[in-house]
């Protein structure tokens, strides 16, 4: 495992409140690390990044991801949270990265959010 893969595991997956997650380099939309079986394609990543361009519109329209329409419960220049029935989607961007995480009904959304935001803060402190 590479360093980012280890960090992803230690910071997110090990909480048992993150179903799937990935760290993506914004510049070229490349997946730097991801949980097992979590596949994101460049067009999906671009749509997720585009949702940060107009947070009010994202709040109004929601986010389409993984064949689901997520209702947006938070959208600002750095974080977007979506909810679809018993599932959730967390997007947090830093200077160079996008962190994507999902959770399911058996998980605590607040723990997922806190873990993702904490990881993003770590990258922001490093200037990434």
Summarize the SSE layout with pairings.
Blueprint: H1 3-11, E1 20-25, E2 30-34, H2 42-50, H3 55-61, E3 63-65, E4 68-75, E5 79-84, E6 87-93, E7 97-103, H4 109-125
Antiparallel strand pairs: 1-2, 1-7, 3-4, 4-5, 5-6, 6-7
Subcellular location: Cytoplasm
Keywords: Actin-binding, Cytoplasm, Developmental protein, Differentiation, Lipid-binding, Spermatogenesis
GO molecular function: actin monomer binding; lipid binding
Overview of the molecule:
By secondary structure, this protein is of the alpha+beta class. It has one domain (3-99, 118-125): Dynein light chain 2a, cytoplasmic (Beta-Lactamase), CATH 3.30.450.30. Helices cover 33% and strands 33% of the residues. The chain contains four helices and seven strands. Strands 2-1-7-6-5-4-3 form a seven-stranded antiparallel β-sheet, sandwiched between helices. The longest helix has 17 residues, at 109-125. It comes from Lottia gigantea (Giant owl limpet). Belongs to the profilin family.
């Amino acid at each position: 495992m590479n360093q980012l893969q280890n960090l992803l595991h230690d910071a997110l997956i090990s909480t048992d409140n993150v179903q799937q997650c990935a760290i993506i380099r914004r510049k070229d939309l490349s997946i730097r690390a991801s949980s097992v079986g979590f596949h994101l394609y460049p067009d999906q990543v671009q749509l997720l990044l585009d949702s940060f361009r107009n947070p009010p519109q994202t709040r109004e329209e929601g986010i389409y991801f993984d064949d689901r329409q997520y209702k947006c419960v938070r959208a600002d220049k750095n974080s977007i949270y979506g909810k679809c029935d018993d599932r959730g989607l967390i997007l947090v961007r830093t200077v160079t990265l996008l962190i994507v995480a999902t959770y399911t009904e058996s998980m605590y959304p607040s723990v997922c959010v806190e873990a993702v935001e904490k990881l993003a803060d770590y990258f922001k402190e490093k200037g990434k």
